[in-house]
Prior knowledge:
Elements: H1 2-6, H2 10-16, H3 19-25, E1 45-49, E2 55-58, E3 62-63, E4 71-72, E5 81-86, E6 93-98, E7 104-109, E8 120-123, E9 128-132
Antiparallel strand pairs: 1-2, 1-9, 3-4, 4-8, 5-6, 6-7, 7-8
Amino acid sequence: MSNDLKNMSESYWKEKLTPEQYQVCRLKGTERPFTGELYYNHKEGTYQCVACGEPLFYSDNKYDSGCGWPSFDDPVNKSNVEFHEDNSHGMHRVEVTCKNCGSHLGHVFDDGPRDTTGQRYCINSVSLKFQPKDQK
Length: 136
């Protein structure tokens, strides 16, 4: 399935995603800090890829890093995400994408909580959808 989704046309993604989701997920954009709906979400559940529904992060791994985007210290499973070198904007970062569909999610940094993984997955709220724990 992932190879099929990764090879879908841009017209497919333009129809499936909102303009803001398309800008972030397909064109590697970013939302303004502190504006994402899920930044303020404190409910229990799973954060999924907005484009394909792949489970990406559990609410138990979300924390307030103060950066303006939802932050997580670990993904549901590292096999659900991919990492890519990103040297855009005059800096070195590690981009995080959905392994299933290739959508841009955000970046991972080594300045997360030292009492857990030490990682900060800084993820665009618009690239996620939330599945509450009490719903299937």
